[in-house]
Design goal:
alpha+beta; 3-stranded antiparallel sheet; 17 helices; elongated
Amino acid sequence: MFLDVKANSLDDRSPFGQFWFEPVTARSSTGVRVGADQAMRLSAVYACVNVLAKTFAVLPFGLYKPQSKGGRKRVDKHWLSQLMRRRPNAYQNPFEWRQMLMGHLALRGNAYNRIYSNGAGQITDLLPMHPDRMRAEMMPNGDYRYLYKQPDGTDERIPRGEVWHLRWLSNNGIMGISPIEAQRDTIGTGLAANEYGARFFANDATPPGWIEHPGQFKDKTARENFRESMQAAQTGRNRGKLAVLEGGMKYHEVTVKNSDAQYLESREFTVREVARMFGVPPHLIGDLSEATFSNIEQQSLEFVIYTMTPIAEAWEASIEYSLLNEDDTFDAEFDLARLLRGDQAARADFYTKMFGIGAFNTNDVRIREGENPVEGGDMRFRPVNLEPLDPQDAADLAAIKSASAPKPPGTPGSDPETDQEELDQVPAEDAPPGGAHASRLDALAAAAADRLTRKELETIGRCRGSVRAAEMVYARHAPFIAQALRVPLEAAQRYCSGQLEELRRGVSTTFERDTRARLIALARG
């Protein structure tokens, strides 16, 4: 009925103790050895590492080229973009690769990748290397290199240029500090509480007791024999069987409550300590004891700002410094906007405000929501009267409005009657076959074509050579031509298509004369 405490103690260095079978790691003040792998046995540590690794692994990566006039352009066909977004190495996809490296950083303070390049100097593979096998070696010239322990026990010397090293907080600029080693006592306390609970329930949640003997044993040997016989009768297959005591002996159970040792309170405190150590809000690892509807959103925002943003910045700086050439001007960026997405109402309010100030257009909103762009959705608008913000879009919209607006009396399409003075101004070469002014209708058509030519050239001139704007103008110009010249809509559309083809080939010196001739021919049918 006695509990052999020494046999379960980590301090027992006898042949039966556990001391010689422990991994070679640092020991905490509680007596429990603490290393990265041992720390993962603590649920709070595993949860924090899991949150950090998975949260970072889902962040979209982008490579951007700054533009001379401000702004930047996304570059998707660069080898670095493909490496980060598609295939970091031959064994892992980007999610698995980033999740693994982030786990190495969170547990060990360092993450390493072996760099493999092709003949063009482009990196083709980034293969992770386990931090426990890596150490830095200082050289006489003040530089350092890496020593990597191979499976056969030999050390491979690797130059700095062949290793991409990501560091956590560092005190020497070479190696990062492991959070587990820095906070081994906090982790050790939690592991010790776990071991205590395991031992407690291994004994059927029954604390050990003691036996009262009315007399005394003959000698030490007799006492040891009695104890061993009692243990043999109450352990293994005999556990739970009825014990028989002789000679007036009495059994006394030691009733130590968990609350007396503040066992549960200690475990709850350890959870919050570990969350604080990794910068993770407790509610993200399942501790809702201090969470409310009002503070969870704020804690989540602080997690993005104060935890994930510095991590992303550390990765971005390391990528630009270690993987790109010095003369490269690319910017690497992990997009944190996905972590800041609110509910539908919050997103709708955000998009409405951004659209209203001209920061977003319709397609910007659709793309952010995972929808395909739509035709005409690239225009942005000013807050005042919702006019296009881009000058080119403003010219396009003005041309469209001008082509489709009602015309005052006296313009083509407003009144088919034209005064005799205008008819007399029709050039003779525009008269139909059979003699000049042979038909009043032909003269009216020529006058209308002349005015249409001036209007069309004026509108196209405001497009400033933009084919896209010209397409929009001619799409709305065809019904106007059909009405002004009293011709079928299909004929007007064919005319507009021909004009657009001419513009695509480049405006010639005879474009104005050819336009007038085509309109006269269209009017005459």
